[in-house]
Every structure is written in structure tokens, then in C-alpha cells.
Design goal:
Elements (H helix, E strand, L loop, with lengths): L4 H5 L5 H11 L10 H13 L5 H10 L10 H10 L3 H12 L12 E11 L6 H4 L9 E9 L4 E8 L5 H7 L6 E4 L7 H9 L3 E5 L6 E7 L6 E9 L16 E8 L2 E8 L6 H9 L2 H13 L10 H24 L6 H9 L34
Parallel strand pairs: 1-4, 4-5
Antiparallel strand pairs: 1-2, 2-3, 5-9, 6-7, 7-8, 8-9
Helix pairs in contact: 2-6, 3-12, 4-5, 5-12, 6-12
């Protein structure tokens, strides 16, 4: 029997993967009928269809023939969202990310990762019991942190935190890999963390704050249409904050980049041999992760939540990212030339349709490495 579109989208959620998940987290304990896979299928369906309430989800899923046996009651889903640990869904997300193809940048010949965060705003008294405890003046809810690969056009690692956790604090917990270029904004401004990246034989590109006290060294010839100045420098202040010693005593590179209608941008990096214009392009590419955050918020279910507890919100975040990857994988496995957004729209209106084998590639075989918890994508540190 041929697969429906929805069954084909769910193909990466293999029986072996889900068995490993339920064994690791005991996520089916106390659930005789509504198991982890059914829960995940239900949430993916909700994201693809942008369903806004449990009642709508119950009616829509139970009335549509999409090739899965999942039948739900909203009370059952509400209970599962509150009690089934969100960690199992973040773990599944990590396993899916581990299967993404690894590409090599043709121009740079190094792996590039963009780091950033985005707030998940939760408005309403129903969230106040837990969200107000760690709220900031601007954010009440959670903060989603991501590492993004611009070549894959996909996140490669995600986690969540309280909104009052600084990006620089999260950066210190982030795994750094040799020969990788990390691109990030001023939220990750920490000289000693930059030094730890350098010590691990990795690289970074970020902005230099206006109040940074530096001593300029060698001045290079500024090459490139937008490059105003290119040279080396050292930090002059050895104890910049509260007596904390600045460990970064070696030469760094600064690049002054002109911007149309705006003040010039001063970049700082430990990449000394790469052309200045290419480094400027790397920082400009940081916009890719902003577009990713914008896409998942606009196209998936991350504006109105199907549960009020912290666990329910985190499940919805994890399953939204899983839905994003599943649709991305489905798009890659077909001969479809549509954009990701149009592919999502097409899938939304054809979930129960039978796949026509003449327009799809052979089903891929998904091999999931045995990952330890330390190397998998983790959930919120709450």
C-alpha cells in the first residue's frame, strides 16, 4: 500500500528511533494508548495545519484520513503535554539534526555556524505562575537559542533558557569545534569566551563595541568595495569588568565596513588570512538565522500554545522544530522545486493524498548514530 503525504513526511521517525527514545526516557510509561509517537504525530499535524486550539485539533485530526491510526481526545493530549517530558522531543530533534548532510563551503573551505537567540513571548495570566519568575523588562516566556548552518539552511543545535539568561552565558556552555567559524552579534560579547574559542583552534566573527579600549598594530591595505580599514589590534585594558582578568592578550583583527545610510560597522575576528570582504560577507550572512526564527514563528505553531505549563510550551517548541526538519527533508526527498513555504502549503492541503512515485525519489534510509545525552540536542535548562 502506498504512503500518504503525511506518512511520507513522518518517514524519518523510524521505529528504531522511537524505540530508543521511549527506552531512554520511559516516555510511554503510564500511557497505554497515546504513546510518544502518536503524541509527536499529533503535534506535527498541528504545526503543519497551524491549528490554534485542542478542540480544533481533535476534530480535524480525527476526521481526516491521513494514513496514521492516531485518534485523540483533547483531554488526553492536554494531559500528555503537561506530563510527558519535553526532553524526549528535544532528543528526537537532536537525532534528526544528526542525519542532515554535511556540506563544505566552496569559498571558505571551513564549516560556518551562526549563533543567535530569539524570544518566545508568552502573554496571558495563565503563564504567569512560572514565566514571571525569570522575566525581563521585554521578555516573558522563554528564549530559544540556535546554532545555524547557512549551507544547510537549517539549525544544527538548539536549546532553550529563561529569558534573563544572557547570550554570552549560553555561549560559554556551547560546544566549540575545531576549524569551525562562529558568527555572532554583540550579545555574545565576552573576551574570555572568545579566547576559549581561539584556544580550541576555532574562529569567530563578531562586532567590536564602541567603548572597547584597544591599541592598533599593523595596518593592512583595505581591499574590497566596502572595506574602509583593515588591521590588527590588542586590548589595552587587562581587567575590563569588576577585576575580571582579560585572557585575550594576542593580536586580533579589526575590519571597518561601510554601510549605505548607516554608520560603519567594526568587525573583530581571529581570522588573519581570510580576505576582509569575505569576513564582512560572513557577518552579513548572520541575517540567515534571523530569517529562520521569523519563518518558524510565522509558518508553524509558535504564536498560540496548546498548553500553559512550561513543559507544554517546550514540547510545542521542540515539535515545531521537528516539523520544520521533517518538511525540509520531505522537500529534499521529492523532485519539488517549490520554496520551503510553498512546500509546506502544498503538504498542508495534501496530507491525505497518496504519494505518486513518479514524482519522488526513492525513500531514503535514515541512520541515526547512538548519541549520548551530552552530545544530543538538549532541552531547556529550567
Amino acid at each position: 500500500m502506498k504512503d500518504t503525504v503525511f506518512q511520507r513526511i513522518l518517514k524519518p521517525l523510524t521505529p528504531a528511533l522511537m524505540k530508543q527514545c521511549t527506552s531512554r526516557f520511559r516516555s510511554d510509561y503510564h500511557y497505554d494508548t497515546f504513546d510518544t509517537l502518536a503524541h509527536l504525530q499529533t503535534m506535527v499535524y498541528a504545526h503543519i495545519n497551524e491549528i490554534k486550539s485542542l478542540r480544533t485539533l481533535e476534530v480535524a485530526l480525527n476526521s481526516q484520513k491521513i494514513g496514521v491510526s492516531t485518534k485523540i481526545k483533547r483531554s488526553t493530549l492536554s494531559d500528555a503535554n503537561a506530563k510527558r517530558s519535553s526532553e524526549c522531543f528535544f532528543w528526537v530533534l537532536g537525532q534528526l539534526l544528526s542525519t542532515l548532510p554535511r556540506k563544505i563551503r566552496r569559498d571558505i573551505n571551513k564549516v560556518v555556524r551562526i549563533l543567535d537567540s530569539s524570544p518566545i513571548q508568552l502573554r496571558g495570566k495563565s503563564y504567569d505562575i512560572w514565566s514571571s519568575l525569570n522575566a525581563t523588562r521585554h521578555i516573558r516566556g522563554l528564549k530559544l537559542h540556535a546554532e545555524y548552518d547557512p549551507e544547510l539552511q537549517s539549525p544544527t543545535r538548539v536549546t532553550t533558557s529563561h529569558p534573563n539568561v544572557n547570550d554570552s552565558t549560553m555561549g560559554q556552555q556551547w560546544p566549540i569545534h575545531k576549524d569551525t567559524i562562529y558568527v555572532f552579534d554583540k550579545g555574545y560579547y565576552d573576551y574570555n569566551w572568545w579566547w576559549s574559542i581561539h584556544q580550541k583552534q576555532a574562529f569567530f566573527v563578531t562586532r567590536l563595541k564602541k567603548n572597547a579600549v584597544i591599541t592598533k598594530g599593523i595596518k593592512h591595505t583595505a581591499s574590497g568595495d566596502n572595506i574602509i580599514e583593515d588591521g590588527t589590534f590588542k586590548f589595552r585594558i587587562t581587567r575590563p569588568r569588576g577585576g575580571k582578568k582579560n585572557l585575550y592578550t594576542e593580536n586580533l583583527r579589526y575590519i571597518n565596513v561601510s554601510r549605505e545610510g548607516k554608520k560603519p560597522l567594526v568587525l573583530v575576528t581571529n581570522l588573519h588570512d581570510m580576505p576582509a570582504e569575505m569576513i564582512a560577507d560572513l557577518y552579513k550572512g548572520r541575517w540567515d538565522i534571523e530569517l529562520f526564527f521569523k519563518w518558524i514563528k510565522q509558518n508553524l505553531k509558535l504564536k498560540k500554545f496548546l498548553g500553559n505549563s512550561a513543559n507544554a510550551v517546550k514540547i510545542q517548541i521542540a515539535t515545531a522544530l521537528i516539523a520544520y526538519l521533517l518538511v525540509n527533508m520531505f522537500k529534499a526527498d521529492t523532485d519539488d522545486s517549490l520554496s520551503l513555504q510553498l512546500s509546506l502549503t502544498w503538504a498542508r492541503y495534501n496530507l491525505g493524498s497518496v504519494m505518486v512515485e513518479s514524482v519522488i525519489k526513492p525513500p531514503p534510509i535514515y541512520h541515526y548514530p547512538k548519541m549520548t545525552w551530552a552530545t544530543s540536542v538538549e532541552g531547556a535548562h529550567l
